[in-house]
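Thread: quick sanity check before group meeting

JM: Hey all, I'm pulling together slides for Thursday and realized we never actually wrote out the predicted structure for the chain we discussed last week. Dropping the sequence here so it's in one place. If anyone has concerns about the input, flag it before I start.
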Amino acid sequence: MPIPTPYFKKDGEFIVSFLKYNLDKQADLAFVFSSYEQADSFKKFDCNAKYISIIFGFDIEHKSAVAISKKMLKA
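JM (edit): ok, ran it. Output follows.
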């Protein structure tokens, strides 16, 4: 799940819901970040959930999953 910086609060709400309905017992949670700095900034919204951080190293803000996939294939 890519998370652009402006939507960190909404992603925090998603984590709360994820835990409330015990989805952590059924699935792993992974968030995609553009940089280590962005991943560090997200930690304040963590809500004590265990999640996997994926760092792309390029800007993912406002890009579709298809565009991100294409960029990864070229790398």
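AS: nice. The mean pLDDT is 76. The longest helix spans residues 8-20.
JM: adding both to the slides.
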